[in-house]
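Ticket #4471: structure export looks truncated?
Reporter: QA, pipeline team
Priority: medium

Steps to reproduce: submit the single chain below to the structure queue and open the exported record.
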Amino acid sequence: MTPTSPAPAARSRHRFPRLPSPLRWSAEGPGTALACLPAIALPLIVGIGLGQPAAGMVAAGGALSVGFGAFQQLSRTRALPMMLAALGMAVAALLGSVLGGHALAFAAMLAVWAGFCGLATTLGAGAWWTVLQWVLAMLVAGSRPGDLLAGLERALLVLAGGALQTLIVSLVWRLKLLPEAVTQPLPRAPLRTALRLLRRHFSLHAPTGRYALVLALSVGTLDLIARRLSLPNGYWAPLTLLILLKPAFRDTFKRGVQRILGTLAGAGVATLLVALLRPGEWVVAALVVASAFGAYTLLRVNYLAYTVFITAYVAFLLTLAGMPEPVVAADRVIGTLAGGLTALLVHAGWTASERARLRRKRT
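Actual output as written to the record:
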């Protein structure tokens, strides 16, 4: 996601490690995007063919998320982000499904995982992205709570989709079947130093530690509020907050505006297409795959354009599961607005607190 920057260990413990920006105006990525599509299409085809489109949707969702790991790096093992994402998402899906019906317990667990996501920024964008997928999987699973058996079923479907994605992309890489997206040299910490870096920043004396605490409390609290207000698909509010709330205000504000605009556009386009085409299951599945290709391809081109396609992807995917598309689009817009505005408010308050802290240290 930027040019090489100093390793986190070399930075002052009193400075935030800035997450590399994924915004680059270039045409890279279509090769890797194409490599990621079969693992999304196959679960949908099997699910529709067996009369179980919802199961195919869950597996395809796991494949989509893990596919973004093809654009990340953690070590010399290229598939490591994908493997870790798939395993962590399966565990998170199990926990989310089981705890989703218990608001306080779920919010507490969600806060812990969100805090760890914030702390993972010390290890670079690849580590942050990997942990982010775990928290997102927990949020999605928590919105559809069930018993232990239902949780295990969901976890296995997510793991199957993620494993299929990892296998296919790794095979494409090994056989050099398609041109690859240019991987940028991301800051990364060797595994042997990761724990040391995490311990260094796991403190309220470190800016990243305070950021992780703010992220944990705000995400957990917003999830409770969304449940209390009975917002339809209310998990989109804490999900948006989790993605947008960055250490740097400029990142939070810019991403927030782009995500809100992209969500509005993507929801509008998806609603219009469904209204005009009145598509059956197979056409909706094709639209899901096409939207996924757009999201993968534009990931490093422009965040606004990427958000348009990922919003359309979610809308089409949930339509395949039987949810009315206009309702899905409206719920997503409401959740995104709530999460985006909360991210700006939380960041404003937190920034004011940090400035007051600095003033006290100088006096």
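Status: closed, not a bug. The export was complete when the record was re-opened. Leaving a note from the reviewer for reference: Confidence is low (pLDDT under 50) at residues 1-23, 181-189.
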